[in-house]
Amino acid sequence: MGVFFLNFLRALKGPTKNLLLRTTLFFVYLLFGAAVFQTIESGEERREKHHFELVRQNMAEKYNISEKDMANLFLEISKAVDEGYFDVNYDRWSFAGSLFFTGTVVTTIGYGKMAPATVWGRVFCIFYAIFGIPITGLMLKSIGERITEGIANFFRLVDRRVCNREPQSIHTKTVIAVFAIVISMVLLLAALAMEYEGWTYFEGLYFGFITLSTIGFGDYVPAHPSEYQNHPAFVIIFTAITFVYFTVGLALVSSALLAISRLFEDDPPWGFISLGMNQDDDDEDRITREKLQAHKLHDATKSDVH
Fold first, then answer.
1. What is the C-alpha to C-alpha distance for residues 143 and 157, in angstroms, rounded to an integer?
2. Residues 70 and 60: beta-carbon distance below 8 Å
3. Cβ-based neighbour number of residue 255 at 10 Å
4. What residues does each domain of the chain span?
5. How far is the CA of 205 from the CAs of 10, 182, 183, 294, in angstroms?
6. Residue 76 half-sphere exposure, CB side, CA atoms within 13 Å?
7. Is the separation of the CB atoms in 253 and 182 below 8 Å?
8. Is the CB of residue 193 less than 8 Å from the CB of residue 179?
9. Among 146, 196, 272, 306, whose CB has the most other CB atoms within 10 angstroms?
10. Thinking of the domain 89-108+117-267, which architecture would CATH place it in?
11. Angle, nearest 10°, between helix axes 2-11 and 14-63?
12. What is the Cα–Cα distance from 33 to 39, expressed in whole angstroms?
């Protein structure tokens, strides 16, 4: 079976082969992730379900609540939790809160703790995202390019002025530097989350990665510290700093991810992505070159004879 598959791959042309291999790799990676998450998380889910079932039974017995009333109560509590009403005590749809929401829309972070509840709000959100996401993507691309260009120029300057040599491995150095900056930002964000959000350091690291990768599960969302909730100026400053931080971070992450994509395309690690991709093309090129050389040699021989 394996030999048949390899022969089948060799019979395909380059672009089709690339598509098949990368699609296969994608689905294998999905299946692998699903198996790992099921193994890790399924036991905890069963324990949580059992725990909440005991809580429901105890409340029903203690307060003599019917099954129907208990189901309605849990439904309302679930809606309140999903929509984030238990997380904050201030007006989330103030201008500052709305500004924070629009940032999560156009950056595609989408924490999920805030969402329009009206029909017109949802309609506007669709059209706002259609135009806002490309605009944001162009802005982040431009910022990321400027940052990486500045880092590359810095390394060129160091090589020429300090090391007295021609610039070497600038692309590799730039990628490493971008990753170092992104990691530093996540570490700093985790420390700030410990101070202002009351999270553990690991929770802050997890939040930083989920945010800057635009996954945005919404299980951890920054909230204004309670002691400052009555100070509008602090809310505005908090929102502005958050936007700047996320904008720079997302720009750097987009640059880093683009560098990784190019690295996989230009020099795939371990050769598993390019398995059988280039061998046939290289053979065809070699045969073509040999034929051309043979024709040239034949023509040259005929000219010498004449």
1. 21
2. yes
3. 26
4. 1-88, 89-108+117-267
5. 44, 12, 10, 62
6. 5
7. yes
8. no
9. 196
10. Orthogonal Bundle (1.10)
11. 120
12. 10
Where residue 231 falls (left for φ over 0; alpha for ψ -120 to 50; beta otherwise) is beta
Token readout for 294 is 């043979």
Angle of CA points 152, 250, 36, to nearest 5°: 110
How far, in Å, CA of 236 to CA of 232, rounded? Answer: 6
SS percent in the chain: helix, strand, coil, step 5: 80, 0, 20
Contact 214, 108 (CB under 8 A): yes
Q: Burial level of 298, CB count in 10 A (0-12/13-18/19+)?
A: exposed
Residue type, 82: D
- pLDDT tens profile 190-200: 888 888 778 89
DSSP 269: G
The single-letter code of the amino acid at 188 is L
The C-alpha atoms of residue 280 and residue 288 are separated, in whole angstroms, by 12
Quick: pLDDT tens for 177-186. Answer: 888 888 998 8
Residue with more model confidence, 303 or 162: 162
Query: Residue for token digits 């395909």?
Result: 12
| Mean local confidence (pLDDT), 245-260 | 76
